[in-house]
Design brief:
Layout (H helix, E strand, L loop, with lengths): L1 H8 L7 H14 L9 H4 L6 H13 L13 H9 L3 E5 L5 H13 L4 E5 L24 E4 L3 H12 L3 E6 L5 H13 L1 E9 L7 H4 L1
Parallel strand pairs: 1-2, 1-4, 2-3, 4-5
Helix pairs in contact: 5-6
């Protein structure tokens, strides 16, 4: 709560429309195809069984809180895990858990002993906690550690669980400039050589590009 209040007074804001446009333009200029990333065939294999999807959609429809949900599935994370046999996965930001579901299914499909550790900020006064990760079927939870803490507390616990030398990171938590510039270096220092660092919503500000 203190961090949330401090952010309102921190200058400069770094979220102006001009900065967002600059960041978005840079994204478009640097975009690369999935074919170039050499995982296109694996994306076609992201075909999660119907009974798991039925469970996930039922749970999603029960969620009436307004908790951000994302949606199924772009296939990027799952295909990386399947094609590269990644085992040590960090995810920041969960919401109802569609990304978590994709990652956990891919770990099982790979047949390895990999683990996903996810962090998600509590939602004070909103009673969202029970819905965090709700679409993940119980069958997939054995390879999952969910830490319901904001980055400044949960990230260290996640790294303690995984150790360093992370294979894959999906950053989808604190989207502010200041939050990213605090978390990115910590995550980067724990990523192994040749690992993959993915960050959502990099068009919000220039933190990703400056980092």
């Amino acid at each position: 709560m203190v961090e949330e209040l401090a952010r309102k007074f921190r200058k400069p804001h770094r979220g102006s429309k001009a900065e967002q446009k600059s960041a978005t333009d840079r994204c478009h200029g640097l975009a690369m195809s999935l074919e170039k990333f050499l995982i296109n065939e694996e994306i076609e294999r992201i075909n999660i069984p119907a009974h798991l999807m039925t469970y996930a959609w039922e749970r999603e429809h029960e969620n009436v809180t307004g908790l951000g949900a994302g949606g199924p599935f772009e296939g990027l994370l799952g295909s990386l895990i399947i094609s590269k046999n990644y085992k040590k996965i960090l995810e920041t930001g969960v919401a109802t858990g569609w990304t978590s579901l994709e990652v956990l299914w891919a770990l099982g499909e790979s047949g390895n002993d990999g683990v996903l550790v996810s962090t998600d900020m509590p939602y004070p006064t909103k009673n969202f906690e029970k819905w965090v990760g709700c679409v993940v079927p119980p069958d997939l939870e054995k390879n999952w550690v969910l830490i319901k803490k904001p980055d400044r507390f949960g990230l260290f616990g996640a790294l303690e669980n995984l150790g360093n030398q992370l294979d894959l990171v999906h950053y989808d938590s604190d989207k502010s400039y200041w939050g990213r510039m605090w978390a990115y270096p910590i995550i980067w220092d724990n990523l192994r050589q040749g690992g993959v660092f993915i960050s959502d919503d990099v068009g919000y500000n220039l933190a990703f590009f400056e980092f």
